[in-house]
Amino acid sequence: MAKVEVYTTPYCPYCVAAKKMLSKKNVSFTELDVSGDSVLRDKMMERANGGHTVPQIFIDDRHIGGFDDMAEMNALGELDSLLG
Predict the structure, then answer these.
(1) In this structure, are residues 55 and 4 in contact, taking their beta carbons and an 8 Å threshold?
(2) Which candidate, 21, 2, 10, places its Cα nearest to that of 70?
(3) 11 is in which domain, residue-wise?
(4) What is the pLDDT of residues 12-69, one digit of tens each?
(5) DSSP per-residue codes, 1-68
(6) Could you tell me which of 19, 43, 77, 83 has the fewest CB atoms within 10 Å of its CB?
(7) Which pTM value belongs to this model?
(8) What is the CATH number of the domain that holds 67?
(9) How far is CA 71 from its chain centroid?
């Protein structure tokens, strides 16, 4: 199974949608809450090549993007192969 990390903040509807999609696929993931943690947010932005919005999603250390990017990959049938 792939290593999935999701950088989030509370009350972010796209974060909720991303976590819901992964949960429906029975994928375990690590949630990293960047609210109030500037060091963690800086690390997220560095890993995401400057991406500062949440969620930022990584599968096996590969930056996928945000929820819209993951949803598009899912619609194209590309997400399941990454998730293993």
Answers:
(1) no
(2) 21
(3) 4-83
(4) 999 999 999 999 999 999 999 999 999 999 999 999 999 999 999 999 999 999 999 9
(5) ---EEEEE-TT-HHHHHHHHHHHHTT---EEEE-TT-HHHHHHHHHHTTT--SS-EEEETTEEEESHH
(6) 77
(7) 0.96
(8) 3.40.30.10
(9) 11
